[in-house]
What does this fold into?
Amino acid sequence: MVNIRGTDWELKTCQVADSTSSMELTLWETYMEAVKTSESYTFTNLTTRNYNGKLSLTTTRQTTIEPLKTSLLSSTPRNIIPQTISINHLTASVEGAAVHIMKLCPKCHTLQQNLSPKDAFHRCQSCKIPRKGPSYLTKCNGTLTFKLGKEELALSISNSLLSTFIRNECNLNIMDKQEIEEFLLTTGPLTIQYTSENQITSLSKLNKTDQQQKTDEDSDSDEELCAIA
It folds into this structure.
C-alpha cells in the first residue's frame, strides 16, 4: 500500500523474464491479479522507471496484459530467487469490522472529501464536473476481527480483496461505512488465508457442504465429550 496525495493505492512487484534476462515489474491496482507465477504474457504500454540506478517496469492506465498459450521459459533464470511466504488458514465468522471508504472521481481520480454514498449527484472537487453519485469509484479497506480460541485476531484487508468480495453480493457504490460493516458481520463463516503479518490474502464464503461438515464435526465433538463425562 502506498499513499499518493491522500489516497491509498495498492501495488505488487514481481519479476518478469525471457530467455535472456529478467526485470522487476510493478503491477498497480486492477493489474495485480492479472498475472500468475510461471505463466507467460504479452505486455503492452508499460513504462520504465529508474530509481537509484535500477531500471524497472510499471503498469500504466493504458497497459494491456494478454496471456500466451506457450511458455517462454523452459526453466527459471538463475538470477531470480523464489520467495516463499508463510500462509495461515482460518475458518470463522467476522466478530468485528472497521472499514475505511474512499470515493474517487472516475476521470481525474481525485479523492472526494464530502461525498456520501447516498448522494444522488456530486461535483468533483478537482475537475469540477457534476456526476451521478454512484458513478464515483469506491475504494475500501479495513480490519476484520475473528475469534481464535479465547483470543481475538485482527486481520488487515486490502481494497482489492474487500471490494471484490462485497461486489459479488451487493452494490458497493451505494453502501456507506455502517452498511458494509453490518454486511461483513452477518455474512456467515468465511474461509480465510493470511500472512504472518496479519494481512488477508484471500477470503471466501464457506459453501453449504463445508458448513454441514463443520456442523457435523462440532456435533460429534459434543457427543464425545458427553460420552467421556
